Amino acid sequence: MSNLFKGLNLLLSDNELHRKPLQEQAAYWLTKSDRGIEHEVHMLDTAKSQWLAGSVIVWLGASLTALAIIADNLWEHSYNPSFPKIVLVLLIWVAMLFVLWLIAQVFDQKAGFARWVTAFASREPVTSESDSVEQIQEALDMARRYPEVLEYKQRVTARRPLRHEDIRIMREMGRQRRHAEIARELTELGTVD
Predict the structure, then answer these.
(1) Positive or negative, the Cα torsion across 183, 185, 186, 192?
(2) C-alpha distances in angstroms, 113 versus 6, 11, 52?
């Protein structure tokens, strides 16, 4: 059970990291070792299994409790099951499940299934499954063109193999540098010295 809380804590820290400036993200990923990343992946895998089992149990418990409460309130004074009562119970139950689903969707943005997938993907080694040819090509072009991107790549590969998140950071570092260059060119275009 402690792995569940460690995994959730890692997801929340990932969320927080993605809101920070790119330089802080790069510095964080530079400190990671291959062994540390593998440990995180193992911990996330265990936590995800516990999370899914717990989610299913809570979801079933909440939906069956809601169904029992609705049925009890409808048959409180009359125990005659009729077609309209059964349809009404099922419609109310489906509506409550929909509300629970909406609540789960809001929570999913912070620590739900989408966040688990992102956490695993960011720690994946560079492969054709996790990174497209275009993404790798863009990272390569950025590393050739901008020294700070190449420096980041060299510092990472001195410690460990590149991961999906490293490719994303390299691409984003290059895009920011390219954006600054284009904005400067646009500002200077047509100005008279």
Answers:
(1) positive
(2) 16, 11, 9
**Across all residues in the chain, what is the average pLDDT?**
85
Say if pTM beats, i.e. exceeds, 0.70: yes
Report d(CA 36, CA 10) in Å as an integer: 13
CB 86 within 8 A of CB 45: no
pLDDT higher than 80, residue 183: yes
Structure tokens that stand for 25 in this block: 């993200």
Angle at 170 between CA 21 and CA 22, to 5 degrees: 0
Structure tokens at 8: 């959730």
Of residues 49 and 137, more confidence is placed in 137
The set of residues, in sequence order, having a beta carbon less than 8 Å from that of 176 and lying 6+ positions away, is 22
Given the structure tokens 């265990």, which residue do they identify?
A: 46
